[in-house]
Protein 1
Amino acid sequence: MAEEFNTEGMLDIYLFENQQLLEQLQEMVLEQKDADSFDEDSINEIFRTMHTIKGSSGIMMFDNITAIAHKLEDVFYYLRESHPDNVPHVKLVEHVLEVEDFISGELDKISSGDTADGDPKNIIKELDAFLDLIKNGAGEGAEPPAENVHEEPKQFYIAPVATDASRFYKVYVTFSPDTGMANIRAYKIVYAMKEIAEDLLYYPEDIISDESSAEVIMKEGFKILLQAQCTEEDIKKIIGIGYDIQRVDIYECKANEFLQGFSDPDPQTIDLESSVEAIEAKADQGKEKEGEPEKKKPAKPQIAPGDFVIKSKEPGKQKKLAKDRPKNEKAAFISVNVNKMDQLMDLIGELVISESVVLQNPDLKVPGLNLTNFTKAAQQMAKISTDLQNVIMSMRMVPLTTLFQKMNRIVFDVSRKLGKDIEFEMVGEHTEVDKNISENISDPLMHMVRNAVDHGIETNEERAESGKKEKGKVTLSARTEAGKVWISVTDNGKGLERQKIIAKARKQGLLDDDKPDSAYSDKEVFQFITLPGFSTNEQVTEYSGRGVGMDVVVQNIQAIGGSLEIESVAGLGTTMSLKIPLTLAIIDGIVLETGTSSFVVETGVIKEFVNVKEDMMIHEPNGEEYIMIRGECYPVLRLGEWYGLKEYRKSVEDGTMLIFEVEGKTICLFVDRLIGKQEIVVKPIPSYVKKVKGLSGCTQLGDGSIALILDPVGFIE
């Protein structure tokens, strides 16, 4: 019985594979949610996906997942076979996504070590009603397809009895080079084939109990002998090509060829109604036979174990032997626990710090030392260290596609519940960010998208009254710039009402009584909506109005060194942009000093270094300073004065100007001296230190001292 197999090693691949299938399913369904119906390829793809999930869940004995997957499979089986033309498409999309949600929730429970105890009865009941609806609405005389009957997972019954209608096949399955645990995937094929099999043999035989059979399958393919009353097309549909299966070759043969089997003239048949002990006993008998003296047999071709014996085919068909098939070079892929990657990233960070300690050791500054060989070795070590960083950082980078598709789903669900006709657009969804960044921005994006749909986009009636002819639209876009990633949520709704926000802010005591409303810029006013408990929505809904959503956005973004910007035009729409670091790991930086303190600036934001003269400076009566460089006037900020440091240089001729160009604005930062370029391991500022404007983190230098990492945006705001 299936439960008697050891499934411990299969659980990880089961979860990984089915989560991938569900992500692909959701993406496919959302892409066609606005179409009139699913195209034929999509119907087949959804059917195969549910069939695969049903089979693998049956093997793992997750009966609730098996049942609901089988019921949705029933629906698409009918759509595939009968082609009804009265299917309510949006309702079907909702049903598919509801099933996807249920299965995803159960997989999450399993991943957390909990029991998959969800009850799918209500969803199955709804699917039954939907299936009855489209069946009863089919045209008169339409012949219903054969029932897609589900059988409980059991060992495969193979009856070695042929009838006149029986046909015999030799099937060769080639898996993709990057397929993992090929033996489990082969077992799924056998499990699916049992629905049509009268007799079934396969090689390797011990695909469940022997993990090494996966390597044999990848090298030689998975070979099946099938006796059934079906066509080649029926077999191909059951096995399917896609996901992990690269190719399926099917050869019809005579009964005597079928009985001749693989290289073993007496292959071990498996009666799957017998017990596992009986199967193992039969396997032991086969091993004993291997030790017996070989009997004389008629001369036959010398073939390698597992090869098929293939006779000449009909005219026009090529003779093929399995062993003649060119073997694809196997790509080496392996699943790695993210925690281990985090540990590796931390170790590489410590390696970078240790490298700085070695290269900046005071002992190396002794006069007269010949450091030629040391310098060469140090350069080689630095190169290897840099390559290590690049490799591990590239491993941690993931595209935003999955996250963006999740937002697509939210727009679909919320807009349906609110009765709004909203279009969703994705731009730059293939932008890659660090995995930790991707996980941290999921909740903020969800709140922003929900706000855009609920707060921003008007109802269909309100848009018509205001003369807006275009559909409501939410655009989610991503781009990278100077080591940062910008993710924006834009809607073409009613925009933010400045006066309404100011009135609410004044009521809550957030404004200075002596400062007129006109003194506040739009940017300052719009930032009020990010404060805890602040909401202009008069009615609390399922999605907004409690004043906590945007507060969560800001907190989560600030936790990873990011910021939120809001732009809005009344009547036209709103854009909310997240600016977050591309990675939280290691950056190239310039180390500088002012007074007795050390700072670091990321190289990507520095436009140039300039040594200036006093006559280039412009001093305003209010204390502000500017500098003229090549006919352009830029504001100047003295780092020593900004942070109230001691013993910093007063004269600009004694220090250096750093010109920053950020977000289209330019500012000059005056510092005492530059120390040099260095790879910096970014560490967060401890939570017990109050957030300081212009600082984004800290790092440890080679001499063991701590340097603060500057964020030029904080100086511009």
Protein 2
Amino acid sequence: MNYRKFFMSFLAPHFAVYLLGILMLIGVDVLQMFVPKLLGAAIDDIGAGKTLLGMYVRQILLLGVAILLLKYGYRLCILGQMRKCEYLLRRAITDKAMRLPLAFYEQHGPGKIMALLINDVMSIRVALGLGMLLFIDAVFLNLFAVVMMAQQISLGLAIRVLLPVPLILLSAIWLGRKVRVRYRRVQDLFSSLTEYTQELFLGLTIVKSLVEETSVERHFAGLNRENLDGNLQLAAVQSAYLPLTRILPMISYALSLAISGNLIFAGEITVGDFVAVNGYIAIVIMATMGIGGMIAVMNRALGSFDRLVAYFNDPEESLAICCTEEKPGVAPELRLEDLHFTYPESSQPALNGVSLRIPYGSFIGLVGGPGSGKTTIFKLLLRLYEPPADSIFLDDIDICRLDAHELRDMFAYVPQEQVLFSRTLAENITFPDLPQEKDNARLKKLLQATALDLSLGDRLQSGKSQLKEAGKDLSGGQRQRVGIARAVFRQAPILLLDDVFSALDNETAAQIDEFLATLRRRFTIIFISQRVAPLRSADRIYVLQDGRIAEQGTHDELWAAEGVYYTLYRRQEE
């Protein structure tokens, strides 16, 4: 993404109204120039004994009304359109987040996206809203003021009076470059602080149970101190604007008093001219004092723009390497052929030459120690990581040639850690769709089959079933059972279960095991389990070790072989 693409994506849809607001703003700047001129003419007429005061009052009041209406209009057009731009930008960031690969979140966590959605989007909105107001005022008020002052006195004298203005501008530009660098560092620090804070409060139960409050507070204090130091460094640069925008305008007033005062004594200008010139200087000073703020705002926005460009240029997950019109059947056969895979951040292969064939309706068990590659197989089946071409097939179709969304529709995945939302229990099971009246019978049946009705049956009723954040009001076993119910509700042809018995007691595990037995032949079930007992009835069990298939067979065959599976089973039985 570049400046042009950014403009076309987020500003172009609203540019006509935005441009109208700029024209109204220029109109306000033009009208403001007549106020000092009318005041100067009124003073001269009063000194000459003319009785035209009422006319000047009416003219100034009319100018005030016109400026009021135009100010309301340009603020509505410019700032209002920037709110719409902010909406489009946040939506684009979220849409991009949905298309980023899993590796992005494992590397950055959610803190980076939170900083983009909050701070960086706000910086862009302020720059194109308030920053544009300050820019237009700085350009046109100074331009019109010089023209009016040249008419009131002379161009040469006007330039001499306004001599400090370029100094303010050059100083602001010089300091603005430093602001851009330091503001970008502040945003990076904020991302780290946000990510750690989110993890801290999500894991507060663990922190308290381990009595690690002191060490956590110490680590948070360190991150907070870095964030504070970065903001203080930014504030140190920004604070230089205020003295500059105060002292240099005073120099303009002093020059005006000296030059215009001498011209009055020499009889070259009137007192009214003197008042008008100082009125123009006041307008110029007002606009010039905004230049420092404008440059600070613009440089913060440029820092944010750099971060947004880097984010939008992050590679997205490949939905399809080579699209195909072929589609797997409703009862697909799954096949892995010589599958090799290494995670991007690792040098050791996670899978090394894995081959297996899973007919539709099979109940397959995957067993192995931590890091043996079991969960990696699931991630590759779902293309959360991109598998090598010609290594995973559904009905002889390489899954890399399928659209990722269509591929994932064929799987129902139950991860080790369930992600629940602050919605009703029924909405969590039917996620992402809202439960319909026709779903009540299926939901009731799933609650019974997964043993949820024993403790959570009443929460299916409206008004009682709203879960707390991340389902914290449920036990670990209840969360796992909700995940199983959610997966089965989807009725996808292939069910992926990743160690879903780890938080269940033996009685509940036995009940869910019976439930899974009723699903056999209607679904393909691939079950990762650290507990080998639930896999005794599996059609085939694959034992993984160091990314390879060390053993395979039925429970009886593997037991008789007295290999890795036999040893693992005996240890658990003992």
